[in-house]
């Protein structure tokens, strides 16, 4: 790393759970992000701040004024413009060393594999089950880890999936086959608290960092390890009670994708 990059990430490097090896792994990591909205916005900020070297952004939406309450990478000047283009401009201002590719399109079962490419991981923060399942199915087939995050009012979920690995569940093991539809609850109809979405998005960035460090074989220290991706452990966040609980999802031997 150059001296300026060493200075920029010095607080990471002094952490034994990250160190120089972990920071190099972050700089070499490639993350494909599905959605640049409420979850994707803070997740993108913290992955960029962590020094993730390559980001691919996929979102077909444009910035609306109602987004500004929670989608913190956008400003009033971005209203009406493509979210992925506005997000790429934010990254360029924040850290020009990060490589960014954008796709202003809706990801589907037909194009998911081509759009995802060959990243270190996929981070999915989209807002409907049909897209989530298309992304999950593609990740299983491409043998790519998936960090998934979702919010419904004051309930949040964050988990890492590796359905391509033996006996590990995929996202479809979690929700089943009944949700292969476009219909879903929306923030416009149900409401959403901006700060809570930020919490979930930030936890999604942490989950992605775990995958990156684990894939790089970064050493663990003590009991818990930042390099443990915690496959299949779903973090359930209650924004009203300010509480967190973890459930362990078993692999579904009848899953039509990861058990096929």
Describe the SSE topology:
Blueprint: H1 3-8, H2 10-13, H3 19-28, E1 30-34, H4 40-50, E2 54-58, H5 83-94, E3 99-103, H6 112-116, E4 121-124, H7 129-142, E5 146-152, E6 155-161, H8 171-175, H9 187-190, H10 194-215, E7 233-238, E8 243-248
Parallel strand pairs: 1-2, 1-4, 2-3, 4-5
Antiparallel strand pairs: 5-6, 6-7, 7-8
Written description of the protein model:
The protein has one domain: NAD(P)-binding Rossmann-like Domain (Rossmann fold), CATH 3.40.50.720. It has an eight-stranded mixed beta sheet with strand order 3-2-1-4-5-6-7-8, with helices on both faces. The chain has 260 residues and is α/β, with parallel strands linked by helices. The protein has ten helices and eight strands.
